[in-house]
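Duplicate of #3305? Posting structure anyway:
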C-alpha cells in the first residue's frame, strides 16, 4: 500500500474530527492513517505541513531576508536574478536554490524534457503577453508597446524588439530585423496563430496571410504555424518570452522610458546579456553555440529586405480603372467587370489576373483621386464610343432629358472612357431630380444647369447638383401645379372669383341654393 502523505487539508480534517470527540479508531478508519499519527496531531507533536519548517542550515541562511525573496518571486522575477542580488557574495546559486526549496517546498517546479534541433533548421516567433511601457514627457500619456521575440532552435539565440503596434507591417518588419540579427534564414519559421500571420487556423492545413506568405517566399523559409492551443509546438520561444521579459523587468524595474527607442535599447541590452551567459545545458553561451554551429547552417539573406505588400480584390470598372487607396489605376480593358488581385507595396501597384501580372504602375502617394492611366490598356476611342456601356448611358440620358443627351454625347465624343463615371453621376442626379420635382420642372432645371456648366466650363457632378438645387428655387412652380377638371367648387382649380360667386350668391338666389 502506498504511503499516504500528510497534506494541509488532511491535517485540518483530522483536527476537526478530534474536536468533534470522535475516537481514534473511528478517525483511523475514516482518514486511513495510524492512531500514532492521530495522537501526534492531538498532542501537538505533528505540526501543520503548510507551516514552513525552521530547518537549521549554514550561517548565511540567517543573513538572507527570505520574506523579501518570496515577495520578489511572487512578482514573477526568476530565483536566479534574486540570488544574484541578495546572496551571490555568500553562496553559489545551487546552494541557495537547495536551501530555498527546503524552506519553501511549495515553490518546487516539475521536471522538463528538452528537444533537440538540427542547426539552421528552426526558428520560433511570438509576442510577449506583457507589453513594455514608455511615457511621453510632453503629454504624460503612457504608451504600451508589444514586444516581438524570436529564438533559434539549435543554439536558442534570442532576439527581441518593440514596435508601436502588432499590425501586419510592423509584424513583417520584425521578421526583417530578426533575420538580419541572426545573420541568415532558418528552413522553418514557426509563428503563433495570430491574425497578422494566419487568416484561418487549422491543425493540418492553416490559411496564411497573403503578405506573410509572400515574405516567406522572399526569404525562402517555410511558415509552419503552431497548432491552435498547442503551446508546446513553440516551446522554445515560450521559454524565451519568459526569460527575456523577466530579465528586462528585473534589470530595468527602476527605469522610466521616455521613447520607443529607449525601450528597444533596453531590450537589446537584456537580450545580449542572456545570449552571452553560459547555458545551463550547453555549458557554453548561446552566442558561442550560434557562432560555431548554427550560423554556417543558416540560409543566405537576400540582397534586399522584404518590402511590405498588401493584397486586395478589386473589380475593374467599365472605364478600365480600379480604385486603390482613393486613386485610380488602369488595367487592360478586356478584363472590365472582372475581379482582379492587386498587390500594394510602398512604391508600386501590381495587378494580377489569377497568376498572371497584367499591369504595373508606380504608386501615387497622394490621396486626391488621381487617375494613373496607361494608354495601351484602353480601347480605341471610336470603338469605345460604340460599346455597350456608353450607348446604354446615352439611351438613359435621352429618356431623361434631350439637353442632357446632347451634353453627354459631346462628352463621349471628347473621350468616352474618361467621362464614363462623370456621366453616370449626371444621370443619377437627373433621375433623382425628376423623382423629387416632377418631369416638367426637372427638365427646365437640368437645362439651366447644363447651360451654366457650359458657360463656366465646370463639367463636374457636384457643381451640377448644386445648380439643380438652385434652379429648383428660381424656376416658377407653375409646373408643379395640379389641374383637375370638374364642376365641384371645392376642387383646387376653381378660381377665387368663381368660388366667391358660389359661396356668396345674390340675395334672390340664396333661397334657391338653400332649397336645392
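Output from current build:
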Amino acid at each position: 500500500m502506498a504511503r499516504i502523505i500528510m497534506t494541509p487539508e488532511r491535517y485540518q480534517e483530522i483536527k476537526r474530527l478530534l474536536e468533534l470527540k470522535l475516537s481514534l479508531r473511528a478517525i483511523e478508519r475514516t482518514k486511513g492513517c495510524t492512531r500514532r499519527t492521530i495522537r501526534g496531531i492531538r498532542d501537538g507533536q505533528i505540526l501543520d505541513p503548510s507551516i514552513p519548517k525552521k530547518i537549521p542550515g549554514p550561517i548565511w541562511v540567517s543573513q538572507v531576508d527570505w520574506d523579501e525573496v518570496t515577495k520578489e518571486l511572487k512578482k514573477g522575477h526568476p530565483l536566479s536574478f534574486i540570488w544574484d542580488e541578495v546572496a551571490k557574495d555568500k553562496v553559489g546559486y545551487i546552494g541557495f536554490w537547495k536551501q530555498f526549496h527546503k524552506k519553501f517546498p511549495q515553490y518546487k517546479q516539475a521536471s522538463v524534457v528538452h528537444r533537440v534541433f538540427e542547426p539552421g533548421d528552426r526558428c520560433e516567433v511570438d509576442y510577449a503577453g506583457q507589453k513594455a511601457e514608455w511615457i511621453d514627457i510632453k503629454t504624460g500619456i503612457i504608451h504600451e508597446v508589444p514586444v516581438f521575440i524570436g529564438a533559434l532552435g539549435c543554439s536558442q539565440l534570442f532576439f527581441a524588439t518593440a514596435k508601436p503596434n502588432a499590425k501586419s507591417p510592423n509584424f513583417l518588419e520584425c521578421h526583417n530585423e530578426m533575420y538580419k540579427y541572426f545573420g541568415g534564414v532558418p528552413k522553418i519559421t514557426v509563428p503563433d496563430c495570430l491574425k497578422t500571420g494566419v487568416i484561418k487556423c487549422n491543425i493540418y492545413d492553416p490559411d496564411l496571410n497573403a503578405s506573410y506568405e509572400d515574405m516567406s517566399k522572399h526569404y525562402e523559409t517555410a511558415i509552419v504555424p503552431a497548432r491552435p492551443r498547442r503551446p508546446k509546438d513553440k516551446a522554445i520561444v515560450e521559454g524565451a518570452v519568459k526569460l527575456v521579459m523577466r530579465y528586462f523587468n528585473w534589470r530595468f524595474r527602476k527605469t522610466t522610458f521616455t521613447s520607443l527607442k529607449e525601450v528597444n535599447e533596453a531590450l537589446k541590452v537584456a537580450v545580449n546579456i542572456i545570449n552571452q551567459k553560459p547555458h545551463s545545458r550547453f555549458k557554453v553561451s548561446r552566442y558561442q553555440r550560434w557562432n560555431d554551429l548554427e550560423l554556417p547552417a543558416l540560409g543566405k539573406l537576400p540582397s534586399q529586405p522584404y518590402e511590405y505588400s498588401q493584397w486586395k480584390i478589386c473589380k475593374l470598372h467599365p472605364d478600365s480603372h480600379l480604385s486603390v487607396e482613393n486613386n485610380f489605376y488602369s488595367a487592360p480593358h478586356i478584363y472590365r467587370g472582372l475581379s482582379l488581385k492587386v498587390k500594394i507595396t510602398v512604391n508600386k501597384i501590381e495587378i494580377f489576373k489569377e497568376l498572371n501580372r497584367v499591369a504595373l504602375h508606380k504608386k501615387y502617394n497622394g490621396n486626391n483621386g488621381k487617375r494613373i492611366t496607361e494608354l495601351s490598356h484602353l480601347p480605341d476611342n471610336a470603338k469605345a464610343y460604340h460599346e455597350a456601356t456608353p450607348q446604354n448611358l446615352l439611351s438613359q440620358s435621352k429618356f431623361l432629358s434631350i439637353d442632357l443627351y446632347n451634353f453627354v454625347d459631346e462628352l463621349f465624343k471628347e473621350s468616352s472612357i474618361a467621362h464614363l463615371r462623370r456621366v453616370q453621376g449626371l444621370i443619377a442626379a437627373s433621375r433623382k431630380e425628376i423623382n423629387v420635382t416632377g418631369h416638367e420642372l426637372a427638365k427646365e432645371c437640368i437645362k439651366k444647369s447644363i447651360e451654366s456648366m457650359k458657360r463656366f466650363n465646370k463639367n463636374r457632378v457636384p457643381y451640377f447638383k448644386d445648380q439643380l438645387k438652385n434652379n429648383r428655387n428660381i424656376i416658377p412652380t407653375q409646373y408643379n401645379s395640379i389641374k383637375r377638371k370638374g364642376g365641384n367648387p371645392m376642387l383646387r382649380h376653381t378660381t377665387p372669383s368663381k368660388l366667391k360667386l358660389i359661396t356668396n350668391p345674390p340675395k334672390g338666389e340664396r333661397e334657391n341654393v338653400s332649397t336645392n
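Confirmed duplicate; merging threads. The chain has five domains: 8-43, 59-107, 122-297, 310-378, 382-480. The CA atoms of residues 304 and 480 lie 70 Å apart.
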